[in-house]
Structure formats: structure tokens, C-alpha cells
Amino acid sequence: MTDNSSGDSRHLETLDRDLARFSNLELATQYVSRPMVGPGISILFVVLAGLLALLFLGQTNNTLIVVIAASLGAYMALNIGANDVANNMGPAVGANALSMGGAIAIAIVFESAGALIAGGDVVSTVAKGIIAPENMGTADTFIWAMMAALLSAALWVNLATYIGAPVSTTHSVVGGVMGAGIAAAGFSAVTWSTMGGIAASWVISPILGGVVAAGFLWLIKAKIIYTPNKIEAARRWVPILVGIMAAAFAAYLALKGIKQLIKIDMVTALLIGAGTGVVSWLVMIPVIKKQSEGLENRNKSLKVLFGIPLVVSAALLSFAHGANDVANAVGPLAAIVQVSQSGDFTHAFTIPIWVMIIGAFGISFGLFLFGPKLIRMVGGQITKLNPMRAYCVALSAAITVIVASWLGLPVSSTHIAVGGVFGVGFFREWDAERRIKAARSTMPDRPSYGPEERRRRKLVRRSHFMTIIAAWVITVPAAALLSAVIFYGITAFVG
Question: Topology versus the membrane, per the UniProt entry (predicted)?
Fold first, then answer.
């Protein structure tokens, strides 16, 4: 009996060890296969986009071309979701106002809503007038150029996401169209005055975004944080700040986000914004008063008051981004569809609803599968954000676009948002240095920091700063060069 018991025990131990090995093997398999889940779903989506194009077009002479273009458009949309949307959601996540899951859910809903409700119905010029279509010669040449532009832009944004650099997807498309245009018809095909404006926006966008964000952070510090009674000051100033945010976003959405539903001029948009801002200010006075009851007189308590406005601003930024940037991404695809069907490539291009669906769903999948990397980078790895700082970044994005539209300046929402993060970080460095000097003037015996310690205490990571700036500068030329190579490859293959 004893022998049988000991035998059973040994068998059980052996079984336990085998089960443990199997369990470990299963966990290892899951771990190894996990990195392939995202690419696998992405490939499936790209294939489905091609099938969707086939379903809508049926069998025509150029069906294969449109199916391939739809797949490339889906690939581009995935990359927009992985890279561009991080600029809207990063600050809110970095400030802990939103969880990663909550940010992705809000972005998916509002990006898709912006694309499908207020997305562009017409692309009057290809990629904002970078090339003159009539210079492209034949319809086939135009189609190959747009296909090369789409693929090169998608590849460049994919690479930027891989190295952790938020870049402008619109600039990537612009570079792709420019490179293919030059390869197809020479330098005369490019509208260089438009390119000059885009080059100027490389400098204008981040500087404007940074200055506006730093200005609002200075206002919050001066009027709330550095006051003896922080809670009382917050009750007075937070409703005003929320009113300014509401005014900026109402004007922004009226001017940019719903421009395809109804045309609104600048003056009307500003009046809509002013009215919305006043109403929001009056509504928020009792709300903030109730929220602030029982809060301690310290900086940590102030974060509660900025949480909801920050979440709302992230949602509104996503809606406006979906309404504007999706059309830019699928513009070349819409051009290919129209030219393939009609042969006309010199007039405005209507964007079919199925093309917008590819763009909207592609952004959602790209954000869900690959977006967290860039969201974490923008939200916490450039500089440390809290709700007040993140709020300044979101407010800066809306106000800067309004100002730029009024001045007629071409700007990038990506550059504005990331510039706002840089502006907040560099302002904090300047403010910390100023306060140290002020303290040293009243306390001469206070020890000073050496050069190494001063570098260590920098509040903006210089490595991220240099990587992002470099990626911004080379986006258009890199996409253009890649597009030209792809165009020559396509024409050599089909010719």
C-alpha cells in the first residue's frame, strides 16, 4: 500500500512538473506571439480595405489599381492613428487625467466622429496645392504619383513611430506628393510658394504653440499657484480659464472642424466662440465652487479642478483632428479613385464615404494597436506634466490654430501640440532657475549647483527634443526622396 502511495505521489509530482512546463511554454508562446498581434491585425485590416474597394467598385478596367491604393490608404490611416493622435491624448494621459484605455476609447469615438461627420467632402487641390495636376501629363502618370506619395508618407510615419518621434502626417503626405511630382514632371510641377509656406510652418507652429502654452502656465502660476489662498484664487480664475478654453474650441470647431457641413467665416466663428466662452464661464462658477469645497490649500488640490476640462479638451481636439487630417491622408486615395473611374485629374476630387470609413477605422485601429508608445512619450517623457500644464498645452493647440488661420499661416497640429509641451517644460526650467536666484539673493549662504548637477536637473529631456526636431526638419525631404524612388520603381515595373 505504501509502495502504491509513493508511486502515485511520484506520478503526481511528475504530472505537476509536466503541467508546469506546459504552462511556462504557453506563457512563453503568448509572450513571443504578442508582438505579432498588432501587425497581424493591421495586415488583416489592409486586406479588408482592399476588399471593401472591390465591393464598391466591382469589376472595372482599373479595379486592381484602386484595390491596391485602398490598401495603401488603410496602411496610411493605421500610421496616423499610431503617431498623430498621440499629440491630442498624450498630455491628458501624462497628467493622469485619463487612463491609457480611457484615452484610446475617447480618441477612437471622437476621431471617427470627426472623420465621418465633418470630414472633407472635397479635396480642391491635391495635398493642398503642392503640385499642379495638369503638369502630370497622363492619367496613369498621375495615378502612379499619388500611389507613390501615399506609400512613401505611410512608410515615413511608420519609421517615425518606431523611433518614437511625433511627426506631421500632413507634411509627410505633402513631401510624398512633392517627390512624386518632381519625379514625374520635373521641378516645375511643384508650387514652390506653397512649399515655402509649409517650410515656414516648421518654425511658426512649435514656437507659437510653445509661447501660448508657456503664457497660460505663467498666468496659472502667478494668479493661482503662487498666491497665499490657492483655493480662493482657483475659484475665481479656473472658470475664466475654462471659458477661454470653451471659446477657443468653439471657434476652432466652427472654423475648422465642421467646415464641410457649413461654411463659417472668421468673424462669425469668433462670435460663436465668444458666446460659448461667456456661457461656459457662468456655468463653471458654481461648479468649481462646489468642487473646491473642503480642498486643502496646496498645489495637489488644484489638480482636481482641471481634470474634467482637460478630458473635454482632449475629446474636442480629437474630433477636430479627425475632421481635418483624415481628409489629408485619404486625399491621394480619393484622387486615385476618381481618376481611375473618370480619367479626369485636373478638377476637384470628391471623397467617397467608403474612403472616409477606411480612414476613420484605420486611425482607430492604429491608435489601439500602436498608439500607447507615442502617447507615453508625448505625455510623460519630454517633460513631466500635471493637469495644469497639460491643460495649457491643450488650450494652446486650439488658440494657436485660430490665430494662425486669422493670419493665414499654414501650421501643423502635431508641431503645435508638441511645441506646447516643450514650451511648458522650458518655462518650468526658466521659472525654477528664477526662483533659485531669488532665493539665493535673500539667502547668500545657500549652496549653488555645479554644472553637472544643473544639467541633471533640466526639466526637458534634451535627447527627445533633438530627435523630434530632427524628425520634423527631414520629414518633407525624406518623404519626397522616398516617394521619388517608389515612383521610379512603379513606372519601371509597369512600363
Answer: Multi-pass membrane protein
The residue-averaged pLDDT of 185-212 equals 84
DSSP class per residue in 345-362: -SS-EE--HHHHHHHHHH
Q: Tell the residue number behind the cell numbers 496646496, with chain if given.
A: 298
Q: What angle do CA 396, 399, 403 make, to 5 degrees?
A: 130
Whole-number Cα distances in Å, 372 to 81, 163, 376, 382: 10, 13, 6, 15
337 is written with which cell numbers? 479613385
Please, is 101 exposed, middle or buried when counting C-beta atoms within 10 Å of its C-beta (0-12, 13-18, 19+)?
exposed
Q: Find, among 187, 181, 2, 156, the residue nearest to 82 by Cα.
A: 156
Domain membership of residue 166 (yes or no) is: yes
Tell me the one-letter amino acid at 113.
A
Q: How far apart are CA 481 and CA 364, in angstroms?
A: 29
Q: Are 392 and 216 in contact (CB under 8 A)?
A: yes
The H-or-E segment that residue 307 falls in is helix 299-342
Strand, helix or coil at 305?
A: helix
Tens digit of pLDDT for each residue in 63-115? Answer: 888 899 999 999 999 998 888 877 778 888 888 888 888 888 888 888 888 87
Number of structural domains in the chain: 1
Give the model confidence (pLDDT) of 392-451 as tens digits. Answer: 998 888 888 777 767 666 677 788 888 999 999 999 888 888 887 777 777 666 555 555
In angstroms, the CA 29 to CA 162 distance is: 24
Q: What is the DSSP letter of 226?
A: T
Q: What helix, strand, coil percent values describe the chain, rounded to 5?
A: 80, 0, 15
The reply to whether 32 falls in a domain is no
| Closest by Cα among 222, 167, 231 to 377 | 167
* Domain extent for 239: 38-494
Task: Give CA–CA dist 118/105, Å, rounded.
Answer: 19
Measured distance CA(314)–CA(110) in Å, rounded: 9
Instruction: Please give the full DSSP string across 122-164, using - where no structure is assigned.
Output: EESSTTTTTB-GGGG-SHHHHHHHHHHHHHHHHHHHHHHHHHT
The answer to the question of residue 28 being in a domain is no
